[in-house]
Amino acid sequence: MKIHYLKHSGFFLEWENCGVLFDYWKGKLPETIRDRELFIFASHVHEDHFNPAIFDLRLPGHEVHYILSHDIRRKVNRMTDREIPVDQITYVRPGEELILQDLQENSIVVKTLRSTDCGVAFLVNCQGENYFHAGDLNCWTWPDDTKQHRNQMVAEYQREIDKLKETAVKAAFLPLDPRLEAEYDRGIRYFLRHVRTEQIYPMHLWEKYSTVGKFRNSLPEEERKIIVEINAPGMIFEEASAEQRG
To answer: What is the DSSP track for the chain?
Structure first.
């Protein structure tokens, strides 16, 4: 399978017969997105995670399923500038589990975590592997925060991530936001050391791609290999599926 980094927090995961699109905002979508069954996720209503243009990806003869955070519903209901496929949308809240099925009758299991900002994070089991997209679930400890607020944020973030301790994650897509200054890597570092994951794709970089190299260089070699070096929109990464690995 292939993982396309689109921009910001947007990723497209591509298999032979289906694709998963996470938090599309901007960036060039691959042509292959229009010739396969699609499962489109949006973690919350903020404009850098939910772009109404996802509703324009419906084409005759292609199945499209929308799994959207519950806080997006109100915005969708107010839209009058495009046709909304209400029968293809499922709204989810934190702590839910949703079982979908693709056209090949493969199950796609979606579990949601509570974001520390807005909406949900997604754990998606597809093609026999777990993929985690954090949305805005992060350890948002800002420079001007009080000690009390920082401690509360750390506790809330760790409580959610600890729910994944028994889960083997093939690929995780996690914020690495340079605006947090000295605390920019606190969330992703906790995830790296407490969740079994093969690859971590940094996101929410606000195009400050040097942040990835800075973080990778701060890690010991074994951990550094887990962090994917993203340095530009449009990058494509090849991943072996469970079946390919035997």
So the answer is: -EEEEEETTEEEEE-SSEEEEES--SSPPPGGGGSSEEEEEE--SSTTT--GGGGGG--TT--EEEEEEGGGHHHHHT--SS---GGGEEEE-TT-EEEEE-TT--EEEEEEEE-SSSSEEEEEEETTEEEEE-TT-S----TT--HHHHHHHHHHHHHHHGGGTT-EEEEEEEE--GGGGGGTTHHHHHHHHHSEEEEEEEE--TT-THHHHHHHHTS-HHHHTTB----STT-EEE---HHHH-
pTM over 0.85: yes
Per-residue pLDDT tens digits for 7-36: 999 999 999 889 999 999 999 999 989 888
CB 148 within 8 A of CB 177: no
Cβ-contact 108, 124 below 8 angstroms? yes
Summarised one tens digit per residue, pLDDT across range 171-200 is 999 999 999 999 999 999 999 999 999 999
* pLDDT per position as a tens digit, 69-108: 999 999 999 998 888 999 999 999 999 999 999 988 999 9
- For residues 96 and 93, what is the distance between their CA atoms, to the nearest angstrom? 6
110 forms bridges with which residues in the sheet? 98, 124
